[in-house]
């Protein structure tokens, strides 16, 4: 969001504020509170409940809340209405391309009571109106494949103003090992609908597919970038249960080659519909996606005549720099240009 990135960009660049923290797996309650000076956000909050046999109680007051089970099962009551759910085996229980995600929406001016076992992540933000509670079950969600090649990922949309909330937008993204998401780099800093952009803050909660209980010296990792092309340009080493606050700018993330990565994301702004605008410098990657799809649909032959390559490049108005990148990518995909 424009006001947030303006306020915190230099503080993050100078290491006066750290947008990244590691969750210890024990604390229960609100973790990122936008009212705190060391949290680079203005409207969006994030927390985790560690569920037990006793009810956790929360009054939402002027805020709406979305809970996303990470593992275990829960029993919840919202203003007297009861909900039950579970996430058996955690976020990586199913094979890639499938999801066992679900989400529970709690409106403003509500009393939530929840208990069970396991971990429940949640986002909160000021509500713009009062809606009824809502639970989207795991059999109602469907992963959507986005991007191509090394920036292909699965996106799972859970809660947004399109189905029930008034402000919060919540979902999950799955990255195969070594793959990028948030690519092409985009931003959602300013409310400029005519330019395809809105003003939203964002938070990521990362999970890695850990099979071994024994801790190695180096755990599976990823890299989160945060940059605005002006004052801010930093990289952060993330691990399992890392939490990251995104005040604005573009924020691509990559999983290392040694593990699958899944992150829960939540966004909030001040009422505008979420619109993500690609950074012009990198939007040519969309044309690469179209080129890859075209070549793959036209047979298994991996030989591309230079005349045809130049015709394709010309049709997409690729510069020499972009053509060289495309040649390198096609080579890695097994194509030979003659």
Verbal overview:
With 338 residues, the chain is mostly beta strands. The protein has 4 helices and 23 strands. It has helices at residues 2-13, 285-297, 306-315, 320-332; strands spanning 20-22, 29-32, 45-51, 56-59, 63-78, 81-87, 103-106, 111-126, 134-136, 144-146, 153-159, 169-175, 180-181, 186-187, 200-208, 222-227, 233-238, 242-246, 253-255, 261-269, 277-278, 303-304, 336-337. The strands form 5 sheets. Strands 2, 3, 4, 5, 6, 7, 8 and 9 form an 8-stranded antiparallel beta sheet that branches. Strands 1-18-15-20-12-11-10 form a 7-stranded antiparallel beta sheet. A 4-stranded antiparallel beta sheet has the order 13-19-16-17, with no helix packed on it. The chain is globular, with a radius of gyration of 21 Å. The termini are far apart. The model has no long low-confidence stretch (mean pLDDT 94).
Secondary structure layout:
Blueprint: H1 2-13, E1 20-22, E2 29-32, E3 45-51, E4 56-59, E5 63-78, E6 81-87, E7 103-106, E8 111-126, E9 134-136, E10 144-146, E11 153-159, E12 169-175, E13 180-181, E14 186-187, E15 200-208, E16 222-227, E17 233-238, E18 242-246, E19 253-255, E20 261-269, E21 277-278, H2 285-297, E22 303-304, H3 306-315, H4 320-332, E23 336-337
Parallel strand pairs: 22-23
Antiparallel strand pairs: 1-18, 2-3, 3-8, 4-8, 5-6, 5-7, 5-8, 7-9, 10-11, 11-12, 12-20, 13-19, 14-21, 15-18, 15-20, 16-17, 16-19
């Amino acid at each position: 969001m424009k006001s947030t990135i303006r306020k915190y960009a230099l503080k993050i660049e100078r290491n006066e504020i750290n947008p990244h923290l590691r969750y210890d797996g024990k604390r229960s309650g609100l973790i990122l509170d936008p009212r705190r000076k060391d949290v680079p956000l203005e409207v969006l909050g994030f927390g985790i409940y560690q569920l037990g046999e006793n009810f956790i109680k929360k009054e939402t007051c002027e805020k709406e809340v979305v809970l996303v089970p990470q593992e275990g099962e829960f029993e919840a009551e919202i203003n007297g209405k009861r909900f039950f759910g579970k996430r058996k085996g955690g976020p990586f229980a199913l094979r890639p391309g499938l999801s066992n995600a679900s989400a529970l929406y709690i409106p403003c001016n509500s009393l939530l009571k929840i208990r069970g076992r396991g971990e429940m992540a949640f986002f909160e933000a000021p509500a713009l109106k009062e809606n009824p509670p809502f639970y989207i079950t795991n059999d109602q969600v469907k992963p959507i494949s986005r991007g191509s090649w090394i920036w292909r990922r699965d996106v799972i949309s859970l809660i947004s103003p399109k189905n029930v909330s008034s402000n919060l937008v919540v979902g999950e993204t799955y990255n195969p090992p070594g793959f990028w998401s948030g690519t092409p780099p985009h931003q959602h800093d300013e409310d400029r609908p005519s330019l395809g952009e809105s003003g939203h803050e964002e938070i990521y909660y990362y999970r890695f597919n850990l099979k071994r209980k024994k801790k190695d010296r180096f755990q599976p990792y990823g890299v989160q970038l945060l940059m605005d092309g002006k004052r801010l340009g930093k990289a952060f080493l993330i691990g399992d249960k890392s939490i990251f606050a995104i005040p604005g700018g573009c924020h691509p993330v990559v999983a290392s080659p040694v593990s699958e990565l899944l992150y829960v994301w939540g966004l909030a702004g001040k009422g505008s519909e979420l619109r993500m605008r690609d950074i012009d410098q990198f939007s040519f990657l969309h044309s690469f996606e179209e080129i890859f799809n075209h070549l793959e649909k036209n047979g298994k032959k991996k030989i591309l005549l230079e005349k045809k390559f130049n015709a394709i490049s010309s049709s997409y108005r690729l510069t020499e720099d972009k053509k060289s990148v495309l040649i390198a990518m096609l080579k890695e995909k097994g194509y030979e240009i003659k």
